[in-house]
Amino acid sequence: MEEIYSTTALKPYALIDDAGPEHGQYINSFCITKRGTWLISVTIGHSRWGTTYTRRSLDRGKTWEDRVYVIEPGKLEPGKTIEMGQLLPLDDRIYQFHIQHTRVDTRFGKLKYTVSYDDGKTWEGPEGPGSLYSLESPAYELSPESDGWHLMAPGITIWPAGSENATKYSSSAEWLLPMNVSTDPLPLSEIRSELVFAISRNVFTAEDPADISFEFYPPPPHGVKVPLESAPAESLGQEPQVVQLSDGRLFAVCRTGNGCIYYTVSEDLGRSWQEARPLCYKEGGPRLLHPNCPCPLTKLSGGRYALLFCNNDGTAFGGADPFDHTKNRQPVYITIGRETGSKTGQPLEFSEPRLLCTIEGFHPEQHWRDLTYGFFLEDQGEYYHFYNAVWRFIQVNRVDPKLVE
């Protein structure tokens, strides 16, 4: 009898893509379009090029159409590769936000975006297919040339309702794109980064994609600092994942170099943020342990929040520290958050971790044992976990509802 649910990469609901042994790839984001299409964005590359592609599913993830590249690999200039793709589906178009590298051997880049008018079948910029719109951004102290942007967390629609200060900003929904601004040394442990939140008032209404604009908060010269505990005067906070609580506040978690997740809260729709603190299972409880890697956070129905994390401080599987990224980014656990109603302490408390997915026994020849770039989906009463397995396979598992109770 076919298994409906799986907690292993050995038995996925669907294999979406295999990059092959010579390439690496990871998930950027996922969305369901206004036509009901499942759409996933992936970055693929090796030492000579990197680009973003999307794939579509018309049967809720069972089968997937061929890759659609934002820019074909052979048409990218050296040092101008693109990565990442945060998807925003609207009624008549889909936006995809990227970074583009400014030179060879860089990890971060300048902000760019593309648009699709045909449900993700093609992507284009101001000069048509193969071109990119530029998203103007200010200079921060960590990135004087505005080329240190990292864009690996989904945007969210934020609503004024429930916030006392909302009307002074907007009378309608805005869209917030979380990111971090960073230095760009080669070792992960030497990066210094701060959280920045870009907010657009007109992305839902602009007729011409070239007209969309964003405001960046906190404004320069600094974003939200996340203290690196080994060097408290320095900051290392990355890939903030944002949800809006029932009272209108914004709650963000982020990856750090401290062997755990940190969080921050905004009471004014993303314009200012509280001091970042370690995330605990409950106020005053033990920390949620996690190496330096993504920690996807998703708002579910019924007042629940799903947080994915590795449940180790970076020393699992022989890892030397939180930055030992080829070893410690596995397996992936899920914990379910509930609102506490606290206005001064941590606003969510979390359940005991439950195993969501493991790569034990999965392609042991692959050196890069990463499972953390992914997305958690609730759709029509069902749950799905999209993930990159060992930095090569893009897969999706169906999730047992008992794990999210």
Using brief descriptors, characterize the structure shown.
about 40% strand, about 400 residues, mainly beta, Neuraminidase, five-stranded antiparallel sheet, 28 strands
* CATH architectural group: 6 Propeller
Q: Can you tell me the CATH topology?
A: Neuraminidase
Q: What percent strand?
A: 35-45%
Q: Tally the beta strands.
A: 28
Approximate shape: globular
- Indicate the radius of gyration in whole angstroms: 20 Å
Number of helices: 0
- The overall number of domains is 1
Q: Please provide the ordered H/E string of secondary-structure elements.
A: EEEEEEEEEEEEEEEEEEEEEEEEEEEE
> Mean pLDDT, rounded to whole units?
94
- The helix content is under 10%
Q: Mind summarizing the main beta sheet? A: 5 strands, antiparallel
**Which structural class fits the helix and strand makeup?**
mainly beta
CATH class: Mainly Beta
Q: Span from first to last CA?
A: 25 Å
Low-confidence stretches: 162-170
